[in-house]
Amino acid sequence: AIMAAMLSPSFKVREFSLTDLQPYAINLNWSGEDVEHGEMEVFPKFLSVPFSKILIFFRKSPFVLTARYVDPDVGHIQKSDTISQFHIQGVKPGAQGEAQKVKVKVRLNLHGILQVVSATMMEKQGTSQTNSEVTAEAANTETESMETETSPENQEPAADVTKMDTNEGETQEG
Predict the structure, then answer these.
(1) Of 92, 91, 71, which Cα lies nearest the Cα of 82?
(2) CB 58 within 8 A of CB 141
(3) pLDDT tens sequence across 12-44
(4) How far is CA 32 from the centre of its chain?
(5) Which strands form 38-43's sheet, in the order they lie side by side?
(6) DSSP class of residue 76?
(7) pTM, whole model, 2 decimals?
(8) CA distance 10 to 81
(9) H or E element: which one contains 3?
(10) Fewer beta carbons below 10 Å: N end or C end of the chain?
């Protein structure tokens, strides 16, 4: 009916747009061997989707990312507030034992489904910085700090960045 009104010369239809929103806030927790537990609200309530963020961690070992709903009263969605766990594997200390920079791209797709799209480790060798391909499937966190960057959906990663695979852990559904 709306298309017929738009095409009809006898009706004037004002332009409008629809925006898809994520109705629940999502936290991301990280933990690992010999590492402090950390937590951050990555996707706030009523965020428009699709939306991606790049999270930057400084780690010496593999780590686990656990996605949870912020509101504990999401029992009507599933039995637990935990959405999923993502294991980031292959992270190792640098040549002098320092923490490596790990970029993890998380995304809420058009349907509001949380995904870890990629994980990349930047490995320093000598005076030049190179990328090391690493697989991501088990996870454990390491250092104290984390940075985030918001990235547009169509932005491609830099040409000198090598991606590592990510595997989603157990998903609990009700």
Answers:
(1) 71
(2) no
(3) 888 888 889 988 899 999 988 767 788 999 999
(4) 17
(5) 38-43, 26-32, 63-69, 82-88, 167-171
(6) T
(7) 0.63
(8) 52
(9) helix 2-7
(10) N
